[in-house]
Amino acid sequence: MGGGTITFNIPGTGVHTISPLSALPNIAQPVTIDGYTQPGSSPNTNPPTMGDNAVIQIELSGAMAPVINGLTLLFAVADNCTVRGLVINSFQLNAIDINSNGNTIEGNFIGTNAAGTAALPNGASSMGGVIFVGASSNNTVGGTTPDARNLISGNIGEGVSFGGTGNTVQGNFIGTDVTGTLPLGNTDRGVFINASNCLVGGTT
User: pTM (2 decimals)?
Assistant: First the structure.
């Protein structure tokens, strides 16, 4: 899977849940997956002090799947991908498994329901992070603008795990609900880094 931009235009209102029964194809080319293209969706516009007002209408649920990752970005062939505007929950392994470089993960709810108020954990059979970045580098989880904020909460294992250099995790809600004030923790560390030259923190 890969190449260009994946957009959504599913008929009907409300949250649309995609529940794969087997592993999704690995992402093997640069691609943008943009859940905010679904009508009725909108990215967050609030500053951190006001919570996250994103409306996400595309939910990728692993509740009916075998032991798989949600999305897998393959090494060397899927650099510079963007994943945004998705709810990703209930996968036995990692929600997003990144093995390539220069990717951006922004504006997603990972490990919660679509409202961002309750846990639907990823990682029940995994030792890695819910967003797991192996030895790859220069990936960004979140960002400095309100629309880039991820909600990464309620998962089993680390929220974000880095094994490569030059990665950034910034401007996210990790271990809280959508308001940013109530606890909705990941069972292990919120962010785990086993590498150098990484940036963690910053909400503006």
Answer: 0.95
